[in-house]
From TrEMBL:
Keywords: Hydrolase, Magnesium, Metal-binding. Its cofactor is Mg(2+). One of its GO terms (biological process) is base-excision repair. This is Endonuclease/exonuclease/phosphatase domain-containing protein. One of its GO terms (cellular component) is nucleus. The lineage of its organism: Eukaryota, Viridiplantae, Streptophyta, Embryophyta, Tracheophyta. It comes from Glycine max (Soybean). It comes from the Eukaryota. GO terms for molecular function: DNA-(apurinic or apyrimidinic site) endonuclease activity; double-stranded DNA 3'-5' DNA exonuclease activity; metal ion binding; phosphoric diester hydrolase activity.
Amino acid sequence: MNIASYNVRGLGRGVKWAAIRRLINKENIQMICLQETKKDSIDKTLCQAIWGSDEVMWEMQPGNNSAGGVLCMWTESAFKIQNKVIGNGFIFLEGVCIREALKICIVTIYSPCHIHNKRILWDSVRQLKQASQVRLWCVLGDLHKEPK
């Protein structure tokens, strides 16, 4: 399964959407995880416009005051979700890569700036890992941000 991760620094409108759509098509991406969407809500219409098809599934963790936000989109013909956890700064998806017939956990992270919040985020991910029976994990995203 082809997975891409991209810090969009604000999802904005048409120009960025078209660039993401071109990337998905050119690289045959079956899942894309976007960090720093800066969106507090994302709907089906937006996901279809970005993905370029109505055959898209998604999960999102909203931004806060025009900052942060995570969005994962995928085609259900490539990935079948079985479990999800949406936490502060991350999305955890457990499911099956259809073509490979592999169970996988995918974690998309948009790491907070402050060290205390980073520790909370990574403790949450560590707890998910310890509780999981799945051996194959993919951790991606914007993992390191300099403090402001």
